[in-house]
Amino acid sequence: MPENIDDRKVFSLLEVNNSIKRTIAERYSSSFWVMAEMNKLNYYSHSGHCYPELVEKNEGKTMALMNGLLWRSDYERINTKFRHVLKEPLKSGIKILFLASVNYDPVYGVSLWIKDIDPSFSLGELEKEKQESIVRLHAEGIFDRNKTLPIAQLPQRIAIISVETSKGYSDFLKVIDSNPFGYKFFHMLFPALLQGERSIPSIIRQLDLIKKVLHHFDLVAIIRGGGGDVGLSSYNNYDLAAAIATFPIPVITGIGHSTNETVSEIVSYKNAITPTELGDWLLQLFHNFSVPVQNAEKTIISESQQILFREERNLSQLLRLFKSVTSNTTKPLRLDLEK
Questions:
Q1: Mind listing the pLDDT tens digit for each residue in 190-233?
Q2: OB-fold nucleic acid binding domain: from which residue to which, for each copy (predicted)?
Q3: Continuous segment of H or E residues that includes residue 59
Q4: What pTM value is reported for the model?
């Protein structure tokens, strides 16, 4: 209850907060759907709760900002749906359509209690980002640039962007280093994150590093494997795709998934579904060179043997003729000497 101090009605801070809480509860008594960008998920592993930062922007300018509240049980249920529908976990930086109610706490203020999120809406937004990246790359005339680069006849020197512990990286090396044909490769690992939003600057940073030692390599291989289809939306990012499209030597990709190609894969010189398939493609390039060489070697040996056989036969015939002629020539002389 308010106090009277010097003929003034004075409320405590808690009373004001409780009054606001009651007003909000009466005004927003039911849940409703909201569309916003989840700028940060703010997941806390020790509790399993999330405190998302929700934002609405217009031409890059922040028009509205609000905190969200996502309890552990709701997060786990929603995250499972996202992994099933999007092949991606719930994460920062995506646009979401969510069911929420207004929550007010005297200490933490107003927030939106998120009860559900529609993954189909976010899937549409991710596809929209992919198409926007493709349109922009075409408009800037760089979409096919990497694909049209000349490639070394025997691309032996490979800069690999991957993770040392990645199964895909291990599979790729096994194919090229243990090939039964004896083809030799030189490769160097440039470690990077390969999944999630942080993979974008990480891969671009390694591409920039490779540029500084470009004369040592014939091509770049981006190898990811063992993660299934999860965490691939970062490969639709324009900045990453543009860095690959404009790279001065061929970039080949073995991202390791079976769904629709990402923009980064589409603009690369060569894309394979798996790192193993990418390694086989490299071996085929060597086959394409070595098989004709081996066939030419066999032809040269065969033709040389035939030539030698013919010449030996001719020489033998000449020797016989020479013996016959010399014999006929010297026979009268021998007879004269014997008289």
A1: 999 988 778 899 999 999 999 999 999 999 999 987 555 556 88
A2: 12-118
A3: none
A4: 0.70
